């Protein structure tokens, strides 16, 4: 591996529509937590041949909360510009070359969900938030435009690459709109079809709609989705295609020229290698899209389990796709993909970069669809680093996202050859330790007290010790077994045992051969061997000397104890540190000076590192323990607690330390000289490790979710920053979130908390959330899956905060709002029992007697004079005027004299509270005097009555209480708290007053609830309330609720009328049914008829008949509607309709055989049971009695025009004259013949006579026959004449 720095960055943020982007030339950026990481890809990365050509080159730092969106400028000449949006409410424009902010705005009032840099306008950035507000920002002229399109949550938006004014927006509920920003956000198309979150929008790279062979005939019936709105035509003449991906598992292609969907691609369920389909994949889908600019007939999408698909759009009906990396095992993402972005390198190679929930950034070759390289990332704090002494170069990293990383730092082909281990972990990995001799054997400890062993060369789950620590595992160490484990035979015990130190202060010895067996607490052996009767100290650190003969234990009181095998005889106690010991490290044995192996370095919660030389003590092996109080060397320079120290395996006496001051420091320990200082982290360092092969290379991990590989020769600083230059203070000032901190609870810890303890867990550090939050985004639904390394809620180990011990700095990435949970302690801190009064600075309560107190803090002379005046006043038989004046002046002496003087002191103190705006303190003083009534009167006059004062009022008497409640109710009314005022009136049984108060202030619902609960059912006040509220609701158009009010007031007629006010079919039907229920038959019939007429306008014949059949009186109308339905169907079939009818017909309206009149007769007989002459006569009478109502607002316009209006005689004469003149111009042949409708009427009359003999007058029958014989000479009439006239 080359001599180059490396960075394992934080994971890209989850659940963001656009959080990564790239520009031509090979620059890629992705948002991670509160910043953006920049990666150079391609030849410009400067990597050695044979390794993947990419390098993390920098970070954009400035936001104080999660970055929710990131986009580059894709305009030539300004590829160096990019924009970010954040949960802190700002949109920032950056220059990536200088890594500084060019400009920013904070226009959004709500959480920003996405943004995009317009590909057509150089300085336009469009952003949208969760309340539906869109801002267009032109940064060159610092101008902005506010658009509010829909009151919905925006999930994504994309500016058109073809038209500078078009923007497509996707919403949480599945709606997609295309707007024109030049027309104040006018909606050009509203595309409906998706029914869940829109995750991604991609415009077709080519304008027009000729690139895809899609036409209306090819698309399925399901795909023909209109936009549902009559909208203006898009300003793009040729239109364009648009692709959208949604959580509903579909990709839809839309035509902008047609404003509808033209293709639907449903995601396939791909069977995972080695297993079936995860049953929860449907809930864990994120569907992101990329439409390649050089392949407009291809579309790339994500799929359920992290796979990437390339869809072939040339044949829409085949739904053909190609799976990325189909031939390579394990190259795909293992979890859902969030973002895809294309990148063209300097050598014109086309790449595609993807970010995923599996915390990998992958690069794909578009030509082969194979994975080029993978950049791993971290989703939690880097707690522990450990190099293997067997597999040289294998670096194990314990991370707070529940996974162990093993980084092969010597890989020649891959600079980031990292494997993830997650099985059986399920918690933050806080401690790691490789077996000294066994290959691939890695011990790990977690924050929930679990200890386990991983075989990194197999895929087997780890072995877990059956003995758990009660709290977080701080340290693991391999060492020789001690009794009772060492008492077995040679074949019955391992050569090395695993020792673990936990947050409860216990060190356990585990048998790696039998982890299922019980682990032993070494305290029992220590107590027995050394005959210790007193309580043993709480252990916080363990470290074995390299030869395995000496064990060092660090304790929470700052002491370090040195024990000798085989029975852990205590030979030495070091009393140097005075705070909790965090780290101990023994010097290696293979240096040029063997005596250096007796050097032991240690760090604690103070900032000083001590080195002790234990050669003399160990070699002499004293009978009684020796106490050491002076160090061999002292290394001072850090400004915060020391978290980790490590000796260089390549040098004699060279040490590296990690500290909460945000730096790692290399020391020449023998000369006590600082050599170099690394400041590349943005958080508090938690661990450090020296490369076993490269003397210049060191690895460090911190709470900024990063692991840095850095070179000592490349550092600009030689010592840690001092004072206010501390990187922690600077970061706190620049990056600390602005949210108000929660009140800190007093810690109840009984055991120490070690140094790595962070103020809240790292997943919660980005966003307040009771559940685990990874990379600033909660991922609740998948936490139960075995594949999920994130912590479930019950295991999220937040820690109590102890700022005095932690030094006055905190991570800039952590919000103050965290879940406090003392059940699991993540790391070690000072015990609260040392200085409980300084652990949390409680705000002191305001004094009730501040003036008296201040007078007791005057000069000594004044206080002496007080004593003399008081003695004179107490013991003189008669007070002269001078003494009385002095006592009056020194009113604070009232505490020591008589009651009158005390009252005067209380009055003066109370007046002072009122002047300073603290009436509640004045009230308390008056209560001390016993003047409760006076307190109430004063508070009422000043409008300062409170619930507490009113609650105490009964102590002054019943009438005082009544008066106080009424006064408080009036005060509440002035403060617009009418409901609360009414509740207080109820407490003194003033029900009518409470109801009237609520009614007069339009709280009808509350007033009715009280009246219904407290008054008699027949009380007229209740009916008045119903009617008043109903009137208001009716006026405001809330007809259904108004109807309920009228029903409550037993005004059923009014309820039916108000329901019918809306005039639609559903309302009329409900109103008619309601009227029928309450016995208003006439009203019910009229409403049913209106309902049927409304349904008739929509050609709903079935619904119309159902509405009419509820009432026997409407049978005549039913006959008419039946005739109209048959006639409508007849006309549609014979003449008018060429396409499919949209009308709803009855099943009996299907036959087309026979004359129309016979069909009508047959239907009437079958449906209405007209069998006897009496029934015929009754039906005929009902038809004659039909009276059509006058025109209403629902009457069609034509019907209104045909209504007969009364005419004056001159007007009627004029019209007749005009009609005669027109008739005079008709040809003589027409004048000689009657019009055809006369002959048809004759036929109808004769038909009626044939069915109903005797119902037609003989004279009328004869006239009809004569007209037919005289004028019915055509073929049509002649056939019927022979039937009726013979």
TrEMBL record:
Q: Where is the Gem-associated protein 5 first beta-propeller domain?
A: 80-237
What biological-process terms (Gene Ontology) are attached?
Answer: regulation of translation; spliceosomal snRNP assembly; translation
Q: Which family does it belong to?
A: Belongs to the WD repeat gemin-5 family.
UniProt GO molecular function: mRNA 3'-UTR binding; ribosome binding; RNA 7-methylguanosine cap binding; U1 snRNA binding; U4 snRNA binding; U4atac snRNA binding
Q: Please list the residue ranges that the record marks as compositionally biased, kind Basic residues.
A: 739-748
Q: Which Pfam families match?
A: Beta-prop_RIG_1st, Beta-prop_RIG_2nd, GEMI5_RBS, TPR_GEMI5, WD40
- Domain Gem-associated protein 5 TPR residues, every copy: 893-1101
Q: Where in the cell is it found?
A: Cytoplasm; Nucleus, Gem; Nucleus, Nucleoplasm
Which residues does the annotated region (Disordered) include?
A: 715-790
GO cellular component, alphabetical, reads: cytosol; Gemini of Cajal bodies; nucleus; SMN complex; SMN-Gemin2 complex
This one is known as Gem-associated protein 5
Q: Which residues form the Gem-associated protein 5 second beta-propeller domain?
A: 391-701
The WD repeats are at 60-104, 241-264, 635-668
- Please name the source species: Gorilla gorilla gorilla (Western lowland gorilla)
Name the UniProt key words of this record, in alphabetical order: Coiled coil, Cytoplasm, Isopeptide bond, mRNA processing, mRNA splicing, Nucleus, Phosphoprotein, Protein biosynthesis, Repeat, RNA-binding, Translation regulation, Ubl conjugation, WD repeat
Say where the protein is mainly found. Answer: cytoplasm
Positions of the Gem-associated protein 5 RBS domain: 1199-1272
């Amino acid at each position: 591996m080359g001599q180059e720095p490396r960075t394992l960055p934080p994971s890209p943020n989850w659940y963001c529509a656009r959080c990564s982007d790239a520009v031509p030339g090979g620059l890629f950026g992705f948002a991670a937590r509160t910043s953006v990481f920049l990666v150079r890809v391609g030849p410009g990365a400067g990597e050695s041949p044979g390794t993947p050509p990419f390098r993390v080159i920098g970070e954009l730092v400035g936001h104080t909360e999660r970055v929710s969106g990131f986009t580059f400028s894709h305009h030539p000449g300004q590829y160096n510009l990019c924009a970010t949006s954040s949960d802190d409410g700002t949109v920032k424009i950056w220059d990536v070359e200088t890594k500084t902010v060019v400009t920013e705005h904070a226009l959004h009032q709500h959480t920003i969900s996405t943004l995009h840099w317009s590909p057509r306008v150089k300085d336009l950035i469009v952003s949208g938030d969760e309340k539906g507000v869109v801002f267009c920002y032109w940064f060159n002229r610092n101008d902005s435009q506010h658009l509010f399109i829909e009151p919905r949550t925006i999930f994504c938006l994309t500016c058109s690459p073809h038209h500078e004014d078009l923007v497509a927006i996707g919403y949480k509920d599945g709606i997609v709109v295309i707007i024109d920003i030049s027309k104040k956000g006018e909606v050009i198309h509203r595309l409906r079809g998706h029914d869940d979150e829109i995750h991604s929008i991609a415009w077709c790279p080519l304008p027009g709609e000729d690139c895809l062979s899609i036409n209306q005939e090819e698309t399925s019936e399901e795909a023909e989705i209109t936009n549902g709105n009559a909208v203006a035509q898009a300003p793009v003449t040729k239109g364009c295609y648009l692709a959208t991906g949604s959580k509903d598992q579909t990709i839809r292609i839309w035509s902008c020229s047609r404003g509808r969907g033209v293709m639907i691609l449903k995601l396939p369920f791909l069977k995972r290698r080695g297993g079936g389909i995860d049953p929860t994949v449907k809930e864990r889908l994120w569907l992101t899209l990329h439409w390649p600019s050089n392949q407009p007939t291809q579309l790339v999408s994500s799929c359920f389990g992290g796979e990437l698909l390339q869809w072939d759009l040339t044949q829409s009906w085949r739904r053909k796709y190609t799976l990325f990396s189909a031939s390579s095992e394990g190259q795909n993402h293992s979890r859902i993909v969030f973002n895809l972005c294309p990148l063209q390198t300097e050598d014109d190679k086309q790449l595609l970069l993807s970010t995923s929930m599996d915390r990998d950034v992958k690069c794909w070759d578009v030509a082969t669809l194979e994975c080029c390289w993978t950049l791993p990332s971290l989703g939690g704090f880097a707690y522990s680093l450990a190099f293997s002494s067997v597999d040289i170069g294998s670096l194990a990293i314990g991370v707070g996202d529940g996974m162990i990383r093993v980084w092969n730092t010597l890989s020649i082909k891959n600079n980031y050859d990292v494997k993830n281990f997650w099985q059986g972990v399920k918690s933050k990995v806080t401690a790691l330790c490789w077996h000294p001799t066994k290959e691939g054997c890695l011990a790990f400890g977690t924050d929930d007290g679990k200890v386990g062993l991983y075989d990194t060369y197999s895929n087997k789950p780890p072995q877990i010790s059956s003995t758990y620590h009660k709290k977080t595992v701080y340290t693991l160490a391999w060492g020789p077994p001690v009794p009772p484990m060492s008492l077995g035979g040679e074949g019955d015990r391992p050569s090395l045992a695993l020792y673990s130190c936990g947050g409860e202060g216990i060190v356990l010895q585990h048998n790696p051969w039998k982890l299922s067996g019980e682990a032993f607490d070494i305290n029992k052996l220590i107590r027995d061997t050394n005959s210790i009767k007193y309580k043993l100290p709480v252990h916080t650190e363990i470290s074995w000397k390299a030869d395995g003969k000496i064990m060092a234990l660090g304790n929470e009181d700052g002491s370090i104890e040195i024990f000798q095998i085989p029975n852990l005889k205590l030979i030495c106690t070091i009393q140097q540190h005075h705070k909790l010991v965090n780290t101990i490290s023994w010097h290696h044995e293979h240096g040029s000076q063997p005596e250096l192996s007796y050097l032991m370095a240690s760090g604690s919660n103070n900032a000083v590192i001590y080195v002790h030389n234990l050669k003399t003590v160990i070699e002499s092996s004293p009978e009684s323990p020796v106490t050491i109080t002076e160090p061999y060397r002292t290394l001072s320079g850090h400004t915060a607690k020391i978290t980790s120290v490590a000796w260089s395996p390549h040098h004699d006496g060279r040490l590296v330390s990690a500290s909460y001051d945000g730096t790692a420091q290399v020391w020449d320990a023998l000369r006590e000289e600082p050599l170099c200082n690394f400041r590349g982290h943005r958080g508090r360092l938690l661990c450090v490790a020296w490369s076993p092969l490269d003397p210049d290379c060191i690895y460090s991990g911190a709470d900024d979710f990063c692991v840095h590989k850095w070179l000592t020769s490349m550092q600009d600083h030689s010592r840690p920053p001092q004072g206010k230059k501390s990187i922690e203070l600077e970061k706190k000032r620049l990056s600390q979130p602005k949210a108000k901190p929660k009140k800190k609870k007093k810690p109840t810890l009984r055991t120490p908390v070690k140094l790595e303890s962070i103020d809240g867990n790292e997943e919660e550090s980005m966003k307040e959330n009771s559940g685990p939050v990874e990379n600033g985004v909660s991922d609740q639904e998948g936490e139960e899956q075995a594949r999920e390394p994130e912590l479930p809620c019950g295991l999220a180990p937040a820690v109590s905060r102890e700022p005095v011990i932690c030094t006055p700095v905190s991570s800039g990435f952590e919000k103050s709002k965290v879940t406090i949970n003392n059940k699991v302690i993540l790391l070690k801190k000072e015990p609260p029992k040392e200085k409980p009064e300084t652990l949390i600075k409680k705000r002191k309560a305001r004094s009730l007697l501040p003036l008296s107190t201040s007078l007791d803090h005057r000069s000594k002379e004044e206080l002496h004079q007080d004593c003399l005046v008081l003695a004179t006043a107490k013991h003189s038989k008669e007070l002269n005027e001078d003494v009385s004046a002095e006592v009056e002046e020194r009113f604070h002496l009232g505490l020591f004299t008589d009651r009158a003087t005390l009252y005067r002191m209380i009055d003066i103190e109370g007046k002072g509270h009122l002047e300073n705006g603290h009436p509640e303190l004045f009230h308390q003083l008056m209560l001390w005097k016993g003047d409760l009534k006076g307190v109430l009167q004063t508070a009422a006059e000043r409008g300062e009555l409170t619930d507490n004062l009113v609650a105490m009022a009964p102590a002054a008497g019943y009438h005082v209480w009544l008066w106080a409640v009424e006064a408080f109710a009036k005060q509440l009314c002035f403060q617009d708290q009418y409901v609360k005022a009414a509740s207080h009136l109820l407490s003194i049984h003033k029900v009518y007053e409470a109801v009237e108060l609520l009614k007069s202030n339009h709280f009808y619902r509350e007033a009715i609830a009280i009246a219904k609960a407290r008054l008699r059912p027949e009380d007229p006040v209740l009916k008045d309330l119903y009617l008043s509220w109903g009137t208001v609701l009716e006026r405001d158009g809330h007809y259904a609720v108004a109807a309920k009010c009228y029903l409550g007031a037993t005004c059923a007629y009014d309820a039916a009328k108000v329901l019918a006010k809306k005039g639609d079919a559903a309302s009329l039907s409900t109103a008619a049914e309601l009227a029928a229920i309450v016995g208003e038959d006439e009203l019910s019939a009229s409403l049913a008829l209106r309902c049927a007429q409304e349904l008739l306008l929509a050609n709903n014949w079935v619904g119309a008949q159902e509405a009419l059949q509820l009432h026997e009186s409407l049978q005549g109308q039913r006959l008419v509607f039946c005739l109209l339905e048959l006639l409508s169907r007849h006309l549609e079939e014979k003449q008018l309709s060429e396409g499919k009818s949209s009308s709803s017909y009855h099943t009996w309206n299907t036959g087309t055989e026979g004359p129309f009149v016979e069909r009508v007769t047959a239907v009437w007989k079958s449906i209405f049971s007209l069998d006897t002459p009496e029934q015929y006569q009754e039906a005929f009478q009902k038809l004659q009695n039909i009276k059509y109502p006058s025109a209403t607002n629902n009457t069609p316009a034509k019907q209104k025009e045909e209504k007969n209006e009364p005419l004056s005689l001159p007007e009627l004469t004029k019209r007749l004259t005009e009609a005669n003149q027109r008739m005079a111009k008709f040809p003589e042949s027409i004048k000689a013949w009657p019009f055809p409708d006369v002959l048809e009427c004759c036929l109808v009359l004769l038909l009626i006579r044939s069915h109903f003999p005797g119902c037609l007058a003989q004279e009328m029958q004869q006239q009809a026959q004569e007209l037919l014989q005289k004028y019915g000479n055509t073929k049509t009439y002649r056939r019927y004449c022979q039937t009726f006239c013979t």
